[in-house]
Amino acid sequence: MNYAKESRLSLERLLNDLDMQSLSKTEQKEFKARLGQQFPRLFKGLHQVYGWQYDFYYHLQQLIQVLFINFNQRSRALKSKDRKKLAQTNWYKDNKMLGMACYVDLFGGDLKGLKKRIPYLLDLGVNYLHLMPLYDCPTGDSDGGYAVSDYRQVMTKLGTMDDLRALASALNKAGINLVLDFVFNHTSDEHQWAQKAQQGDEYYQSHYYMFDNKDIPNQYEQNLREIFPQVRRGSFSFNHASNKWVWTTFNNFQWDLNYSNPIVFNAIVDEMLFLANVGADALRLDALAFIWKELGTNCENQEKAHTLIQCFNACLQIVSPSVVFKSEAIVHPDEVIKYIDKDECQLSYNPLLMALIWNSLATRKTRLITASLQKTGTISDDCAWVNYARCHDDIGWTFDDQVAADLGINGDDHRRFLNQFYTGKFPGSFANGVAFAENPLTGDCRVCGSLASLCGLETALETQDQNAIELAVKRILLVHSIIMSIGGIPLIYAGDEFALLNDYSYEQDPSKAHDQRWVHRVAVPEHMLTQEYIEQSLVLPRLKAMIKCRQSETVLGDAKTRILPLVNSHCFGYERVSQQGETCVCMVNFSEQTQTVPASLFKSLGKSLGRDLLSGRSFDLKQALQLQAYEFLWLV
Predict the structure, then answer these.
(1) Which residue in the list 270, 281, 328, 558 is annotated as catalytic?
(2) Which residues, other chains included, contact 215 with Cβ-Cβ below 8 Å and sequence gap of 6+?
(3) SS3 216
(4) N or C: which end of the chain has fewer CB within 10 A?
(5) C-alpha distances out from residue 306 to 191, 249, 292, 338, Å
(6) Which parts of 132-234 are beta strand (E)?
(7) What is Dmax (Cα atoms) for the chain?
(8) What is the rounded distance in angstroms from the CA atom of residue 616 to the CA atom of residue 634?
(9) DSSP track, 321-333
(10) Would you call 553 a catalytic residue per the annotation?
(11) pLDDT category, 89, cuts 50, 70, 90?
């Protein structure tokens, strides 16, 4: 097919059938221009997925209506922001960017309470606020809000959709970008579509994967991995109300959407644009790797999953071009990279960096982080990593087994070691973590725990060991030093700046006791935000100084990152190089012992003198550089 020709002809017909009288002449011109720019790739992508269907053009016509209606409903203020941000290309790569992620109730009580915490966020330097799922969801277990019953309603305990709009407006005025979750792989079984499907409505049953018996599910199961084996085995659940088997990748109350049905794509585009029109600046694509199912495959990272995300991206660019996507692909590093593109996801979590920082803290070795990032750390100049140490989720060891093998490391054995180390089972471990999603057959698991507890502060405080406390604080600061300087948006999980410890009270709540991730979903009480408390904090004053330094140095923003090959396997190093030729060499010691970096490294970089941006100290780099226990330097 000649896609250029056919897309042009189709667009002409579609526009002829579209009544745009509700728009001003200027807005009509703007809508047509964006549609014309994005339609060729949108048409091609949708045709590749749905072109075999006899009513393909009808669904395309319905989609254009969805786009037009949402463009028409977008407020003047948001349309103005669209135009402003389109002129600020790659705003997310600025050195001033600093993110925070939080649950609304744990950080602010409710949406109105969170609004009152904007001054604290501004004082810290936050300009990117990611709110964990806040939509209407089932009472009790809802996978932390990731089982959405209604995308257009906020949880009653948090407030109303108008409260969310008011918060979005206040954040925008404060210069803080709002990030919301776009949970689009599944809905809860209480969503109106699922409810009608359970009542026997075949139209809505086609919104999901529903089967009369286990024959076809069994064929799929041969290649699928289990996500939550501690909850139930397999990826399908029997629904008694409909007397059918339903595809449920995660939990039996989370029903996977059927994207082979174009009606589903159009409906979810409508929900996505509703969230954009609430005032989001970015949407986190939850579980994006799972959205396309193909028999005979593992149904992850399929080619048509990428095609669909690119189509979602095109729809977003037509209606709300200031909004960007953030990829949540916790998969093999080679697959993570494939989602990162200006026409797909402009932002992406950096799960490899996160996992390998924790690996290096446990092993005191940096060979794996250095080799891994040299292989897969580079992404498009139009995109940015979102670098984090902890988040609402567990830690999975998603490094490349082949890279590990090249270093003489057995991937499976090493993951067992890391799991034992961070759950405190390995002799000499400093960590207090909790095993999550432990497979009863293989013993494999993932790790939960707050940043401070995993860094050893919990044990150190229990024993009142001052040396151990000091080392734990150094680890906490070291972790943040990397996510602040390596390139991308540093994302702090709310409470980590106060070094909050694990909260084991979840074990007493029947709706949470089975989900160990609640151990690090810790509330931030009001008294912690007082200036007196902040000044006495073990971590926050030094973290604030680090943030201030980052936000004053452009070389730590939109600049290239090169991972350096270091002779000393306890040290990790990388060089930042800006477009203006500015350079910054970052050095990190991952051990409790003093380590040496030879002068030959700095000679190869053309550096004979260095000044640490953080401390102001100067170093003669013609001599070997001494790094103290867990020390880190940003050398210019």
Answers:
(1) 328
(2) none
(3) helix
(4) N
(5) 26, 19, 9, 8
(6) 135-136, 150-154, 177-183, 186-188, 210-211
(7) 77
(8) 10
(9) TT-EEEE---S-H
(10) no
(11) confident
pLDDT in the model for residue 442: 75
Residue 218 and residue 338: Cα distance in Å, rounded? Answer: 29
Q: For 511-617, where are the E strands, in sequence order?
A: 559-563, 571-578, 583-589, 595-597, 609-611
Q: How far apart are the first and last CA of the chain?
A: 55
In the block, residue with structure tokens 């943040």: 480
Beta bridge partners of 446: 436
Give residue-wise pLDDT tens across range 494-525.
999 999 999 999 999 999 999 999 999 999 99
Nearest to 50 by CA among 304, 224, 423, 298: 304
Q: Which of 371, 170, 353, 424 is nearest to 279 (CA)?
A: 170
> How is residue 240 written in tokens?
């008694």
Q: How confident is the model at residue 1 (pLDDT cuts 50, 70, 90)?
A: confident
Instruction: State residue 231's pLDDT score.
Output: 66
Do the Cβ atoms of 118 and 100 come closer than 8 Å?
no
Which amino acid is present at 71?
F
What DSSP element (H or E) covers 348?
strand 347-349
pLDDT digits (tens, 9 = 90+) for 452-471: 999 999 999 999 999 999 99
For residue 502, give both structure tokens. 């694990």
Q: Report the candidate in 619, 617, 621 with the shortest Cα–Cα distance to residue 605.
A: 621
> Please, which residues have CB within 8 angstroms of residue 199's CB and are 6 or more apart in sequence?
241, 242
CB atoms within 10 A of CB 163: 18
Which are the contacts of 139, defined by CB distance < 8 A and separation ≥ 6? none
Give the Cα separation of 337 and 326 in Å (integer): 12
Do residues 358 and 322 lie in contact, with contact meaning Cβ atoms separated by under 8 Å? no
State pLDDT tens for residues 369-389: 999 999 987 899 999 999 999
Beta-strand ranges (E) seen in 87-140 are 99-102, 128-131, 135-136
Residue 226's pLDDT is what?
A: 87
User: Can 256 be counted among the known catalytic residues?
Assistant: no
Q: How far is Cα 448 from Cα 455, in angstroms, rounded to an integer? A: 12
Catalytic residue among 271, 286, 394, 631: 286
Pairwise CA distance, residues 577 & 413, whole Å? 37
DSSP state for residue 501 in the 8-state scheme: P
β-sheet bridge partners, residue 181 = 284
Q: Cα–Cα distance between 191 and 210 in angstroms, integer? A: 15
Element (H, E) at 434: strand 434-436
SS3 category, 114: helix
Residue 597 gets which letter from DSSP? E
User: What is the pLDDT averaged over residues 417-424?
Assistant: 96
CA pair distance 553, 576, nearest whole angstrom? 11
Side chain identity, residue 483: I
Q: Distance between CA 605 and CA 566 in Å, rounded? A: 12
Closest by CA position to 390, among listed 97, 92, 102:
102
Residues in the chain: 636
pLDDT digits (tens, 9 = 90+) for 250-287: 999 999 999 999 999 999 999 999 999 999 999 999 99
Residue 232 in this model has a pLDDT that exceeds 80: no
Residue 516, C-beta contacts closer than 8 angstroms, at least 6 positions apart: 394, 434, 435, 436, 448, 506
How much of the chain exceeds pLDDT 90, in percent?
Answer: 94
Nearest to 394 by CA among 352, 436, 440: 436
